[in-house]
Design goal:
Blueprint (H helix, E strand, L loop, with lengths): L11 E3 L5 E3 L4 H11 L12 H34 L11
Antiparallel strand pairs: 1-2
Helix pairs in contact: 1-2
Length: 94
């Protein structure tokens, strides 16, 4: 396994309203995804019972839904980025 690198592209962009969002998600979806992405760290959370497990399963489904939406948009964005011809900042000498 290779060592992780810090050169991975960021998956956040600034939307038209100036909000930092995950590619493909709205600001509200980004906030929701980030909240769902954090484990429940409340004291005693593991003891809440069946209702909590059902809620957690629904949250998991919503997390997957948002992740898939983001991942598809990210893949499209990366493909478009790779397809753009590299433009030199200097004029050609032809």
């Amino acid at each position: 396994m290779s060592e992780p690198k810090n050169d991975a592209p960021r998956r956040y962009i600034v939307d038209g309203a100036g909000h930092r969002v995950l590619v493909g998600l709205t600001i509200s979806e980004t906030i929701e995804f980030e909240a769902l992405d954090k484990p429940d760290t409340r004291p005693g959370a593991e003891l809440l019972g069946e209702a909590a497990r059902v809620r957690q399963a629904r949250h998991g489904e919503r997390w997957v839904e948002l992740y898939v939406k983001h991942e598809r948009a990210w893949s499209d964005w990366m493909a478009q980025t790779r397809a753009r011809p590299a433009q030199s900042p200097l004029p050609s000498l032809n």
